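// run 5 | inverse folding | seed 20
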């Protein structure tokens, strides 16, 4: 599952500028190719951590409420957000100054409760099938960007959206097997994440990535805590290492993803985030006893292929708009 800060693609400063003098023999500047390669590696590693994180969330939510598990995770995430904001230019005051406070709060609440729905789907449907359906969220972003943002969507990208919908039907197989009502959960989660992504694009008109990142964590932790306090329960001693692992994975993945986005553009890294499906499938089969049915593999390939096509078409459109006339 994508990280809470994954749509915030602009570079985020990781540490204050050094106060000491430059060394006599400064290191050679990193070549663009090296930066791109390192960014790709970081995204692939982050995708692995995301998969481990989701496996831990599924394990814990089989015993505890998904709301409670998400709340504990967000408490640690909020600490990370505050630490990053405090170290950035202007500190907490600059990070919290938004031109769109209502939209920022809406973004944060959408994301945290999308995570709750995803975690519930992990328990009800399994890690593999949930992720296979959720992978369609970039196609939903394309479908909604027309009516919401007023963007013009060509017939090729609409065809890709239609193909992605066919992929979802192949995975869920309505009418061919006993249809679980829980199958709607990853669809709802994908729709919520798509709206979250569109809102992120809207606020980015005036708010920096640092501001959006701050509000993602703070609005999210406030919302989940207001609901989650009613679900607090003692954590068994044997489950503390799993909960700690979940929180550590969350903070590590956030840091690595921010680092990747500071090295390369998000658009160039997007295809590599699909490696998470590989890790999720391995964890689901080898550690959680899940099964990868042929229809799930076929549907997953169709959705990923459609997503990669829309990404390619978006790049082509952007290059055409920026090309000298």
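// decoded
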């Amino acid at each position: 599952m994508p990280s809470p800060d994954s749509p915030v693609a602009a570079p985020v400063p990781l540490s204050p500028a050094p106060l000491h003098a430059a060394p006599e023999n400064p290191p050679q500047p990193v070549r663009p190719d090296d930066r791109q390669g390192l960014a790709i590696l970081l995204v692939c590693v982050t995708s692995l951590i995301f998969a481990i994180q989701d496996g831990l969330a599924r394990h814990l939510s089989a015993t505890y409420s998904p709301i409670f598990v998400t709340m504990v995770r967000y408490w640690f995430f909020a600490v990370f957000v505050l630490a990053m904001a405090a170290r950035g230019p202007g500190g907490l005051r600059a990070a919290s100054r938004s031109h769109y406070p209502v939209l920022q709060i809406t973004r944060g609440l959408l994301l945290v409760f999308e995570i709750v729905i995803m975690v519930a789907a992990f328990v009800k449907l399994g890690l593999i099938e949930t992720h296979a359906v959720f992978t369609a969220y970039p196609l939903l972003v394309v479908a909604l960007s027309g009516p919401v943002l007023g963007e013009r969507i060509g017939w090729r990208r609409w065809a890709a959206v239609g193909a992605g919908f066919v992929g979802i039907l192949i995975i869920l197989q309505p009418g061919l097997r006993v249809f679980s009502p829980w199958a709607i959960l990853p669809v709802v989660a994908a729709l919520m994440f798509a709206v979250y992504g569109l809102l992120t694009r809207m606020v980015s008109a005036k708010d920096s990535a640092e501001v959006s990142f701050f509000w993602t964590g703070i609005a999210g932790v406030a919302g989940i805590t207001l609901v989650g306090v009613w679900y607090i329960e003692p954590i068994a001693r044997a489950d503390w290492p799993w909960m700690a692992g979940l929180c550590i994975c969350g903070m590590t993945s956030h840091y690595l993803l921010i680092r990747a986005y500071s090295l390369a553009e998000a658009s160039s890294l997007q295809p590599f985030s699909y490696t998470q499906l590989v890790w999720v499938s391995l964890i689901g089969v080898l550690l959680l006893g899940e099964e990868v049915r042929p229809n799930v593999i076929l549907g997953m390939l169709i959705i990923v292929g459609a997503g990669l096509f829309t990404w390619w078409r978006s790049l082509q459109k952007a290059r055409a708009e920026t090309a000298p006339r």
